[in-house]
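Table S2 (text version). Query chain:
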Amino acid sequence: MYSKIKVAKILLSTTIVLSSFLVLASCGEIKPSTVVQYDSSGKNWGGYVSGQLDIRFDDNDHTAYIHDANSYVAHDLVIPWTIWQNDTAYTINLAKSKFTPNGDITGKLTIPYNVVEIGNDAFAHCSGLNSVILPPTLKTIGDFTFSSCTNLTTIIIPDSVTNIGIGCFNNCTNLSIIGIGTGLQSIASLMFYDCANLSIFFIPTNITSIGSQAFFGCTGLSVLVISENVTVVGKEAFKGWSTNQTIMVWWESSDTPADWNEDWNSSEATIIYSS
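Corresponding structure-token output:
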């Protein structure tokens, strides 16, 4: 039986490692004044764009969004927060935008400062994407938004984010480190499904629920600590884990809360209950 001191040491070491990545992530500057004139190719956006971006304009709310991405490749893309057309300013709307399936983003992606929502599937299957800088204004990330971004390695979720949809990082097979901010309360179903290289993950105390199959196939995690604040765990949340992986549950006995699904584990992982 692990003592709270031993658990605290594991938490501390994980937090120190994660904190170093938070510092590195903060070095990526988000420029709130990124404004460009309309160019259908997107070549005046930050980074390099080859091909065509189908940019649509909504005169009802003066927003602009990507309707279709026609066989483009963008490297180190910096999305502008405002696009000017015919002397009118249109605010970028990522809740309606889709950058796939006909294009790809490689390297780093920078989301503009004013964005509060990124829509479903917006960057799914951007297989060349390896890092994302999210703004402190962001509140919602949709379903499967970064699904199958197979070269994405690191992402830090800001404290402002309160909702992340199902399967957001599903099949991000090279995702190794992710930081969760203080605003999120639940880890949605399928969120890290088949993220086999996820090696550093700390469930913060603000998390109260873990969805079904949230960590299915996350075989790269050696230890995961579930705090006493987690009152709901869905079915097969950790299915596919092996005997050399450990789930530390911060409860005084093996009597898990009533709202933990009876098949919450469904794996061969070692379960340690720590008081």
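Notes on Table S2: The first helix runs from residue 4 to 26. Confidence is low (pLDDT under 50) at residues 1-36.
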